[in-house]
Design goal:
globular, 16% strand, 385 residues, four-stranded antiparallel sheet, Aspartate Aminotransferase, domain 1, 2 domains, Aspartate Aminotransferase, domain 2
Length: 385
């Protein structure tokens, strides 16, 4: 199997699998509460390792069930009022866009999408003008969308947010584990990510970064439980000082420990090394695909990441993916409803997504390109018959 669906779910590293199995075995032997107490050091290391990965402090990290779980917890802490503006991009992740629409329905907020520049990424100058003119309650940007290899200039946007003291939320779901992330350099107040993709952690895990200024500013999630707050009197409660206020009391501890192991593994491999290797494999694949008649590579931006999207003339999406499956190549599909603005601009209904990682090889890239060449040619042959 050639695993080119790392933007969906990366392959678990062996230490990750081992850490999870060991904890589950311990729970089976001595009980869940007792196992968590015995593995307190490994549990604590999730926060230390994640903080090291993104350049923050452990107290600014909250465990989450997914990137979307982290994202909605962050959104729930912002006191939206009717007429408030959410400033975002045309390439933000589908679940984020739906969350914004839900907030518009519930609270009457206004959603403003900054225009794109000619390369396909957000026009930062236009976005900065909208910040000054509209004074948004929230600026929200997806670093790398799920539907293409576009990399948005999140640090450049962050500088404008800092200058205007705006709350800034970054979805780093596809970039954590693929590219170096430094929250101070980005200048974000919230950053969300999953652990299952390029970080190679288990499913059902993610994290939320909450900047100290947000914690000190009194932001707290809409629903907060006894883990995130202290019941100080019959009619009062006080949130804890750390990002733990965004967590729940109950944890999947084996998965959390596995996520810590995945992060430590990525740090040992070296994120900067990963950030050179992984996009280089994607660039090789993109170059091969561009040369195939009938294949249209859809990625935009000057330095695309390791998400390669394309369509093939004469093929429908599901049969094409199934054909790749028969070649033992894992892939993913994106549809128009995943990316309403982007796919409308590109005039496409679907895209096949291939996403290599550092453990893939050049030979695998070439094998995938050869398979696509064969499938594209077979459809052209059928059309001529």
């Amino acid at each position: 199997m050639i695993h080119f669906n790392n933007a969906g779910c990366g392959l678990l590293a062996r230490p990750v699998h081992q850490a999870m199995v060991e904890h589950l075995d311990l729970e089976a032997r001595i009980g869940g509460y007792e196992a968590a107490e015995a593995r307190a050091g490994e549990i604590s290391d999730f926060y230390a390792a994640t903080a090291e990965l993104i350049g923050s402090r452990p107290g600014e990290i909250a465990f989450a069930a997914s990137a979307t779980d982290a994202y909605t917890r962050a959104l729930s802490s912002i006191p939206f009022e009717p007429g408030d503006v959410i400033l975002t991009t045309r390439n933000d992740f589908i679940s984020n866009q739906i969350a914004f629409l839900s907030l518009r329905k519930r609270f009457g907020v206004e959603i403003v999408h900054a225009p794109d520049d000619p390369d396909g990424g957000v026009d930062v100058a236009a976005m900065a003008r909208l910040m000054r003119g509209r004074r948004p309650r929230l600026v929200a940007v997806t670093h790398i969308p799920t539907n293409s290899g576009l990399v948005q200039p999140v640090a450049e946007i962050g500088r404008h947010c800092r200058d205007l003291d705006l709350v800034y939320l970054v979805d780093a779901c596809q970039s954590v584990g693929q590219l170096p992330i430094d929250v101070d350099e980005i200048g974000c107040d919230f950053l969300t990510a999953t652990c299952r993709k390029f970080l190679r952690g288990p499913r059902g895990t993610g994290f939320l970064y909450v900047a100290d200024r947000i914690l000190r500013g009194g932001f707290e999630p809409l629903f907060i439980d006894m883990h995130g707050a202290r019941w100080t009197g019959p009619d009062t409660y006080r949130p804890v000082d750390t990002a733990a206020r965004f967590e729940d009391w109950e944890f999947p501890y084996a998965a959390l420990i596995g996520s810590a192991a995945a992060t430590r593994y990525a740090l040992r491999v070296g994120v900067r090394s990963i950030s050179r290797r992984t996009p280089a494999l994607a660039a090789r694949l993109r170059d091969r695909l561009t040369r195939i008649p009938g294949v249209r590579v859809l990625d935009r931006g000057p330095n695309p990441a390791a998400l390669v999207t394309f369509d093939v003339a004469g093929w429908e999406p599901a049969p094409f993916k199934q054909a790749l499956d028969t070649h033992r190549i894992s892939s993913a599909l994106s549809y128009r409803h995943f990316a309403q603005y982007d796919f409308a601009d590109k005039d496409v209904a679907w895209a096949l997504r291939l996403s290599p990682h550092y453990y893939n090889t050049e030979d695998e890239v070439d094998a995938v390109a050869d398979a696509v060449t064969h499938l594209a040619a077979s459809r052209r042959t059928k059309e001529r018959c």
